């Protein structure tokens, strides 16, 4: 369960203050599929970093699974991220000189999972993200943008996180591959009851979620149930 | 993080930037190699000097002119320049009980020429007793005899090294030839047996002439540089040393032993004096080496700091996906330690090689000792941990989001 109350984020740069998030309050229940939508620069990524326990709000409270994040130590936050959360960063953030498999299994390295199990789980995640097997031993900087995105998705799935945070996960993908990814999220949400928070600026992508929170200039302008959810069915992309 | 993963990460990080890792390792290699090699050479010199002092003869007392000035200074360059001892003093010592033989010497270096070749060597004016007192043997011909001392004969006995330098290695026609010291001709009557020793303690590079000849034609005065006294048996050494001191004080009319114008040393005094000089020398070498080790360590710290800056985004990512502070700091610490251990290992091998080459080509028996290797290795490990710790801590305390944004 994610509970934000009056969250603010202010960046100070010398005398200049930038209020990136203003008075953000909402709750996400376990098993929800929520899209956060807004134009570029509206504070979506900043919000995701706070929800993902990567950054602390300047003021306001954030309670994750009943624990006040502002009261946790850096290492406790690291364990929360390792065991409960999966991130897909807007900029992918892959290790450039490591293979695809190594990149995907890195969260498991820190969870001290033995090597064989790590490779098996990384393979499962890569399959779920739709990256062809002949790319698995490539270095991550030898991949196309779309392939990198799928590696980033696989890495977010590999530790079976209860909450998946995806920042523009389809931004670099063609429609078909994008749909595969959205289908993967829907399946994880429906079959495994994982919480999904999907960040996008495209209404079309947001419509795959059950609930859409719209952000503008750091404020929530709309928070509604998505009445006409788009459902991607299995056979529409069987070719990938 | 499992140990195998830590090693894997460390290895790939070090291997990615081979040139930079190599240069950093080189800094440590030079530091460690110089510690190992220089201390080995220092200790080799010390051992060489000690053995050559022990080789000059047993049960030996050395009387030199000039006041005793305390251990360490007694072997200084000024020793023997004072003019207080005469042949009469030596003769009087010879009359004491328990003295086996006495040999006076007048010693100085000269340019020697023979048949167009020349060499610079020590000319030692002495007496026939020198053979007994200093354990010298004659290989060919004969040594200076009593008659030649009395008659101020211009004869010379040369050491094997001098023979090699003047007449060619192993030459047999030295005897009967003529050599010139200070434009004065001397007839060669004998060659001594090789005694060994090397460098500045070579006992084979010498020309012996009758002491009286040396006084009359070379030094031009009646003083002697050294009186070597051979004591009949080892248990009489202390008594003999006291007797010689008292005798000379009486002969020189000196009441207070502290004002003595000569000094009487036994072998262990000389060894102690020489050791204190050579250990100062070894410490000097070791501290020079220590400085280069420190510089190598700073090289590691520099590389690790650059590393942390360059890999800020990577650190941010690792933290974002669940790395704890200790995971990050261990990774960077392990890199520093791996670099120092590689450098340490290669450095010890290189230092050993230099010591070996010195022994082989410079005739100093350099001794690589376990403590110096252990010290060098310990210091390099220490440096790795010390100089790796700060960058590692810097890396581990980065905020993940700021690190990910870093350009
Ligand atoms: N460290 C920072 N210091 C100052 N301002 C910042 C900092 N990080 C973000 N901002 C500002 O916060 C605002 C929101 O940034 P954010 O990355 O959250 O936007 P976004 O909604 O994700 O945009 P996009 O869709 O383009 O990714 C931007 O105006 C940005 O300039
Ligand atoms: Mg963004």
Written overview of the protein:
The complex is a heterodimer of chains A (240) and B (407). Chain A is α/β, with parallel strands linked by helices and 240 residues long. Chain A has one domain (2-225): Rossmann fold. In chain A, 33% of the residues lie in helices and 28% in strands. Chain A has helices at residues 44-51, 74-84, 100-110, 115-129, 145-157, 175-192, 203-206, and strands at 2-13, 16-28, 33-37, 59-64, 67-68, 85-88, 163-167, 195-200, 211-216, 219-225. In chain A, helix 3 packs parallel to helix 5 (145-157). Residues 236-240 of chain A have low confidence and may be disordered. Chain B has 407 residues and is α+β, with helices and mostly antiparallel strands. Chain B folds into 2 domains: 3-52 and 273-405, no CATH class; 85-251, no CATH class. Helix content of chain B is 55%, strand content 17%. Chain B has helices spanning 3-16, 18-54, 87-94, 130-133, 146-150, 160-167, 211-219, 237-251, 267-310, 312-320, 325-361, 370-396, 400-405, and strands spanning 60-65, 99-114, 117-126, 138-141, 155-158, 178-181, 184-192, 206-210, 226-231, 262-266. In chain B, strands 2-3-8-5-7-6 form a 6-stranded mixed β-barrel. The longest helix of chain B has 44 residues, at 267-310. Chain B is elongated and about 100 Å long. In chain B, 41% of the residues are buried. Mean pLDDT of chain B is 85; it is low at 71-80. The interface between A and B is medium-sized, with 29 and 25 residues. The structure holds adenosine-5'-triphosphate (ATP) and magnesium ion. Magnesium ion binds at residues 44-45, 90, 167 of chain A. Residues 11, 13, 18, 20, 38, 40-46, 90, 201 of chain A line the site of adenosine-5'-triphosphate (ATP).
């Amino acid at each position: 369960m994610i509970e934000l109350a009056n969250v603010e984020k202010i960046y100070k740069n010398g005398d200049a203050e930038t209020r990136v998030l203003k008075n953000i309050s909402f709750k996400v229940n376990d098993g929800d599929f929520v899209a956060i939508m807004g134009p570029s620069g509206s504070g979506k990524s900043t919000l995701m970093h706070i929800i993902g326990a990567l950054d602390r709000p300047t003021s306001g409270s954030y309670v994750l699974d009943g624990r006040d994040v502002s009261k946790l130590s850096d290492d406790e936050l690291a364990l929360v991220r390792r065991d409960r959360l999966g991130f897909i960063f807007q900029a992918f953030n892959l290790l450039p000189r490591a293979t695809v498999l190594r990149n995907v299994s890195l969260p498991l390295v820190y969870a001290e999972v033995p090597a064989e199990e790590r490779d098996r789980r990384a393979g499962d995640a890569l399959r779920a993200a739709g990256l062809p097997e002949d790319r698995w031993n490539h270095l991550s900087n030898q991949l196309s943008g779309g392939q990198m995105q799928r590696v980033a998705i696989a890495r977010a799935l590999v530790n079976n996180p209860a909450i998946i945070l995806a920042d523009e996960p389809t931004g670099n993908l063609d429609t078909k591959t994008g749909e595969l990814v959205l289908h993967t999220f829907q399946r994880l949400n429906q079959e495994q009851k994982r919480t999904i928070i999907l960040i996008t600026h495209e209404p079309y992508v947001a419509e795959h979620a059950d609930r859409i929170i719209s952000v503008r200039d750091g404020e929530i302008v709309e928070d509604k149930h998505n009445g006409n959810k788009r459902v991607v069915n299995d056979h529409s992309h069987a070719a990938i | 993080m499992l140990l195998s993963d830590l090693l894997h990460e460390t290895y790939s990080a070090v291997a990615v930037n081979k040139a930079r890792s190599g240069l950093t390792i080189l800094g440590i290699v030079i530091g460690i190699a110089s510690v190992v090699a220089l201390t080995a050479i220092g200790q080799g010199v010390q051992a060489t000097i000690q053995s050559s002092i022990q080789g000059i003869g047993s049960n030996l007392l050395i009387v030199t002119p000039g006041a005793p000035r305390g251990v360490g200074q007694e072997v200084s360059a000024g020793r023997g320049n004072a003019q207080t001892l005469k042949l009469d003093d030596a003769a009087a010592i010879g009359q004491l009980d328990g003295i086996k033989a006495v040999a006076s010497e007048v010693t100085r270096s000269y340019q020697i020429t023979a048949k167009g070749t020349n060499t610079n060597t020590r000319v030692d004016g002495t007496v026939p007793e020198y053979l007994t007192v200093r354990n010298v043997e004659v290989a060919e011909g004969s040594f200076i005899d009593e008659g030649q001392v009395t008659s101020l004969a211009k004869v010379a006995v040369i050491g094997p090294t001098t023979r090699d330098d003047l007449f060619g290695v192993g030459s047999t026609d030295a005897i009967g030839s003529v050599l010139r010291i200070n434009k004065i001709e001397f007839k060669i009557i004998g060659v001594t047996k090789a005694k060994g020793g090397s460098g500045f303690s070579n006992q084979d590079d010498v020309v012996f002439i009758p002491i009286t000849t040396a006084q009359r034609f070379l030094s031009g005065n009646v003083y002697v540089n050294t009186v070597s006294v051979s004591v009949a048996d080892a248990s009489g050494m202390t008594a003999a040393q006291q007797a010689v001191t008292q005798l000379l004080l009486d002969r020189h009319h000196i009441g207070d032993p502290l004002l003595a114008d000569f000094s009487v040393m036994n072998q262990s005094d000389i060894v102690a004096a020489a050791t204190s000089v050579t250990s100062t020398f070894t410490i000097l070498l070791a501290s020079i080496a220590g400085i280069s080790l420190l510089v190598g360590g700073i090289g590691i710290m520099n590389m690790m700091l650059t590393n942390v800056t360059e890999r800020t985004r990577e650190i941010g990512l690792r933290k974002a996906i669940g790395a704890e502070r200790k995971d990050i700091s261990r990774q960077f610490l392990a890199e520093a330690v791996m670099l120092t251990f590689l450098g340490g290992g290669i450095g010890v091998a290189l230092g050993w090689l230099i010591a070996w080459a010195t022994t082989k080509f410079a005739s100093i028996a350099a001794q690589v000792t376990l403590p110096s290797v252990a010290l060098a290795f310990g210091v390099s490990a220490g440096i790795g941990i010390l100089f790796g710790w700060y960058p590692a801590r810097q890396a581990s305390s980065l905020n993940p989001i700021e690190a990910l944004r870093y350009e």
